C-alpha cells in the first residue's frame, strides 16, 4: 500500500514495532526526568517522599491531556493527507526548566522559609506562569518566527538541550560503568548498525532494558524501591498557592528566559516535524502546551513541559500515532498506584543515558540541518554560553548540600578562584543571552545592522529589568550590563553609518567565502 492512500484509516490503538520502541523510550525518559527536581532537592533537605507524593503527581494530568491532544492531532493529519507515516508530536518534560526551577526558585525559597509547602507552591506557580507566557505567545507565532532568526531559534534549542543533557543525563551513562557500557553497546548495535539482537526482531531498546535490568539486579547495581501500592491523587494544590503565584514575579529572571526557551523549543519542534513531512500548527502547539502547563501547576505539579524537537528521530524509529496515546495512560496509572519510585528504579540512569545519547544525535542533526552553513560561526558561539550556567548551578547545589551560605565573603573567594562574578553574569538568564548574541551575530552576517542594533537595545532593557545578567527580576538590577549593551548598540549604529554601501549590500561574510572556496 502506498504511503498516501485516502482509503487507509489511521487508528490510535494500533501499535507497531516502532511505536513499541518509542513507548519504551518515551516512558523511560519521562518517568526518570520526573524525578530529577525531586532528587536535586533531596540533596538539600527536602524529603524525597514529600516530593514524590505532593510535587510530582500533577504532571501526570497534564501529560495525559497532552497525549490525547497530540494523538488526536496526528490522527486528524493522517486522515486529511492519507499518509501512513504520520508520527505524533513528541511531548514531555522540560528538563532545563525543571532543573532551573528547582535550583533557582524552589531551593532559595526553602532556604529562606524552611517550609516544604512554600517551596512546593513556588515551583508550581512557576509552571503556571510559564503556561501563561505560552498562551500569550500563541496568537503571535507568525511574528515571532519573523522577528527571531531561525538560526537563533535552533541555537537556543541546541544550547539548552546539549548543556543539560551533558550535565544531568549523558554524564550518568557511567554512573555504573558496567551497565552503561552494556546499554550503549546494545543500542549502537541495534540502532546504528541495525543488527537484529534476537531472532524475534525485538526492539533494541527493549533488549537493552532487559539485559541491563538482569545484570543490574544480579550485581546489586540496581535497587528497586518498594513500599507497597497506595492511592496517590494526581492533584494536590499547594497551600497559599495564589499568594505564591503573585510572589513568583520576583523570579521572572528565571521564569521568563525559560519560557522563551520553551516557546522556541515548540517552534523548533514544528520545524523538525515539517522536515520529515508532518505539518503541525505552531499556534495550536503553543496553545496546547500552555494549557497543559497551567493544568500541571494548578494540580500542584512542579514539572514544566515542552514539545520535543526530536520528531525525526521518533519517525526514524518507526513511531506513528499510538505511542503517545498509551504512554500517558500508563504514567497516570503508575502515579495513582503510588508506584512512581519503583518505576523510576526500573529505568536506571545507565539505560536511559544510552537511549538519550541516540536521541540527542537526532537533536543535533535537526539543529544543523536547519542552519545555513554561513551561520555556523553564530551557532558555535551560542552553544558555548551555557557552560557558565552549568558551573553556577553545580556550585549552588554543592554549597547548599554543605550548608554554606553564598555570603559576600564566599562570593569573593569564588571570584578569585573561578571568576564567579562573570560566570554569574553570563549564567543568569543564559538562554536569553544565547538568543541575543546569536541573533546579533546572524544579523551582522546578513549585514542587517539595524536589526543587530535593536537586539542590543533589547539586551540592554532585559539586563536593566534583570531578565538576564542578573539573579532577580526588578528595576535597575544589572546597570553595568545594561550600559554595556547600550554602548554595543551605539557601536553597531556607527559601523552601519560608516560602512560603505557596497560592503553593506554584500551578504556573504569573508568566512563564508573561505568555506565556499574550500568546498
UniProtKB/TrEMBL annotation:
The chain crosses the membrane at residues 27-50, 56-78, 90-110, 116-135, 171-193, 205-226, 241-264, 323-343, 349-368, 375-392, 423-442, 449-470, 482-499. The keyword Ribosomal protein does not apply. The keyword Membrane applies. Keywords: Membrane, Transmembrane, Transmembrane helix. PANTHER family: SLC26A_SULP TRANSPORTER DOMAIN-CONTAINING PROTEIN (PTHR31610:SF0), SLR0360 PROTEIN (PTHR31610). This is Xanthine/uracil/vitamin C permease. It comes from Alicyclobacillus fastidiosus. The lineage of its organism: Bacteria, Bacillati, Bacillota, Bacilli, Bacillales.
Amino acid at each position: 500500500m502506498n504511503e498516501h492512500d485516502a482509503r487507509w484509516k489511521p487508528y490510535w490503538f494500533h501499535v507497531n514495532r516502532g511505536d513499541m520502541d518509542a513507548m519504551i523510550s518515551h516512558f523511560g525518559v519521562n518517568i526518570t526526568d520526573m524525578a530529577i527536581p525531586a532528587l536535586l532537592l533531596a540533596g538539600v533537605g527536602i524529603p524525597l517522599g514529600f516530593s514524590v507524593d505532593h510535587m510530582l503527581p500533577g504532571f501526570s494530568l497534564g501529560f495525559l491531556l497532552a497525549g490525547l491532544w497530540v494523538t488526536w492531532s496526528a490522527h486528524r493529519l493522517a486522515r486529511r493527507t492519507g499518509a501512513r507515516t504520520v508520527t505524533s508530536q513528541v511531548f514531555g518534560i522540560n528538563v532545563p526548566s525543571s532543573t532551573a526551577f528547582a535550583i533557582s526558585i524552589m531551593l532559595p525559597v526553602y532556604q529562606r522559609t524552611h517550609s516544604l509547602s512554600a517551596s512546593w507552591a513556588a515551583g508550581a506557580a512557576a509552571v503556571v506562569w510559564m503556561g501563561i507566557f505560552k498562551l500569550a505567545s500563541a496568537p503571535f507565532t507568525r511574528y515571532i518566527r519573523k522577528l527571531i532568526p531561525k538560526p537563533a531559534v535552533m541555537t537556543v534549542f541546541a544550547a539548552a538541550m546539549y548543556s543539560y543533557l551533558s550535565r544531568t543525563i549523558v554524564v550518568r551513562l557511567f554512573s555504573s560503568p558496567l551497565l552503561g557500557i552494556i546499554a550503549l553497546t546494545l543500542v549502537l548495535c541495534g540502532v546504528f548498525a541495525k543488527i537484529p539482537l534476537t531472532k524475534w526482531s525485538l526492539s533494541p531498546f527493549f533488549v537493552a532494558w532487559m539485559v541491563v535490568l538482569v545484570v543490574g539486579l544480579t550485581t546489586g547495581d540496581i535497587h528497586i524501591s518498594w513500599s507497597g501500592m497506595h492511592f496517590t491523587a494526581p492533584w494536590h494544590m499547594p497551600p497559599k498557592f495564589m499568594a505564591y503565584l503573585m510572589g513568583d514575579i520576583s523570579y521572572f529572571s528565571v521564569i521568563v528566559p525559560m519560557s522563551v526557551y520553551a516557546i522556541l523549543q515548540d517552534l523548533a519542534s514544528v520545524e523538525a516535524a515539517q522536515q520529515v513531512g508532518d505539518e503541525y500548527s505552531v499556534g495550536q502547539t503553543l496553545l496546547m502546551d500552555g494549557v497543559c502547563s497551567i493544568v500541571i501547576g494548578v494540580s500542584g505539579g512542579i514539572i514544566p513541559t515542552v514539545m520535543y524537537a526530536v520528531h525525526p528521530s521518533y519517525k526514524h524509529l518507526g513511531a506513528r500515532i499510538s505511542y503517545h496515546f498509551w504512554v500517558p495512560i500508563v504514567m497516570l496509572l503508575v502515579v495513582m498506584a503510588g508506584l512512581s519510585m519503583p518505576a523510576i528504579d526500573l529505568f536506571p540512569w545507565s539505560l536511559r543515558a544510552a537511549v538519550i545519547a541516540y536521541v540527542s544525535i537526532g537533536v543535533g542533526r535537526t539543529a544543523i540541518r536547519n542552519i545555513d552553513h554561513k551561520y555556523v560561526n553564530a551557532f558555535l558561539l551560542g552553544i558555548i554560553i551555557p557552560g557558565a550556567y552549568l558551573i553556577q548551578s553545580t556550585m549552588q547545589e554543592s554549597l547548599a548540600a554543605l550548608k554554606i551560605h553564598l555570603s559576600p565573603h564566599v562570593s569573593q573567594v569564588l571570584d578569585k578562584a573561578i571568576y564567579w562574578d562573570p560566570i554569574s553574569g553570563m549564567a543568569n538568564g543564559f538562554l536569553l543571552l544565547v538568543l541575543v548574541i546569536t541573533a546579533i551575530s546572524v544579523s551582522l552576517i546578513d549585514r542587517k545592522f539595524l536589526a543587530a542594533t535593536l537586539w542590543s537595545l533589547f539586551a540592554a532593557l532585559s539586563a536593566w529589568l534583570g531578565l538576564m545578567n542578573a539573579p532577580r527580576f526588578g528595576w535597575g538590577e544589572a546597570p553595568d550590563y545594561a550600559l554595556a549593551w547600550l554602548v554595543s548598540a551605539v557601536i553597531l549604529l556607527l559601523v552601519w553609518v560608516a560602512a560603505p554601501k557596497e560592503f553593506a549590500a554584500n551578504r556573504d561574510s569573508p568566512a563564508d567565502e573561505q568555506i565556499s572556496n574550500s568546498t
